[in-house]
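protein under study:
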Amino acid sequence: MQISSTRILLASFVGTAIEFYDFYIYATAAALVIGPIFFPPSDPAAQTLQAFATFAIAFLARPVGAALFGHFGDRVGRKATLVASLMIMGFSTVAIGCLPSYASIGWPAPALLCLFRVGQGIGFGGEWGGAALLAVENAPPGRRALYGIAPQLGAPVGFLAANLLFLGLNFSLTPEAFASWGWRLPFLASAALVGLGLYVRLKLTETPAFAEALAKAEPERVPLATIVTGHWRATLLGTLAMVAPYALFYLCTVFALSWGTGRLGYPKTTFLLFECAAILFLALSIPLAGAAADRFGRRPVLLSGLLVTAGFGALFGPMLGSGEGALVLAFLCLGLFAMGWIFGPMGAALPELFPVRVRYTGASVTYNLAGIIGASMAPFAAQWLAGWGGIGSVGLYLAGAAVISFVAVLLMAETRPRRE
């Protein structure tokens, strides 16, 4: 049965949008309520650091999910693996929304929270790689990067949905009601969204590239072993290339939200509105970068974005640190536009580093290892650095990440096919 390109791209986009929504509602909750609800009463700064530590746990679990789902994605197929990853992520998200607080049951509350964060990480670890392959391996010649933006657009849409829901709850509920039960509603809503994602994905067929590879030879027995022994350089460089966009995104969202509502004293609703406006710049830059990457190549687009990111680090003090609304909003818009310019081409660039037979594993492991380095500790490290050396030191942290990614992209081969 022939599946239309529109349906394929929709399946790639919808699934990642749901999974990003699940991931971001936790990120937003970590900045707003997780600390006081799941950890013992103490200094608010300590509770925030503990909440950000639980945020990091899922990133540590993501490479496990990448290896697990990549194994079956490269041996059994993309479709079944994508369905399984979506179900695990959705179950873990809903379970977090049902957890009792520390005040109710004590230390089992944060322990269970960490357990289901691991579940979220495992589910998410298998999602992005499969969704990217679904789009890229169905792309017509010369349009892989443009098709590869489908899963990338799930990021701003999932983020926007998560923040708008939290924003609506903050407008409609008292602070007491929000802290008591309102924060749970975005987690419980994931059940309905997962049902929608399953409906779209269960009607898919395998990608032509995977079907052709399977027809030529038996699948790799252990794809992860093949990646480690035969494609370690591509894995290393792809991982380091993704460090800066990860760090940039979570500094402009999770850390900035915590800093803005804490140190700068903005109401939660105001800063959430800032971030919802800024995320539109991320959504704008992703397709622009995808189109540019098909025309000029992956490396030139990535390198230009990383140069901008390194310079953007210098703006933390004068813009975010100023506390002035216009400058803070402009800071968020600039940062997320730069992130999208790097993030957009990655939907094609990372899968193209690996042959079809191990592409699911390679792309997934690379993407999620980068999450550990670039994202998992970024809010925690930024919170600590800002307290130690001021907000400007967070900019130096970002600039360092940009230099690492810039060197990695310089050493990567151009993956845009010269002829297709």
In short: The chain has a mean pLDDT of 88. Residues 234 and 304 are 21 Å apart (CA to CA).
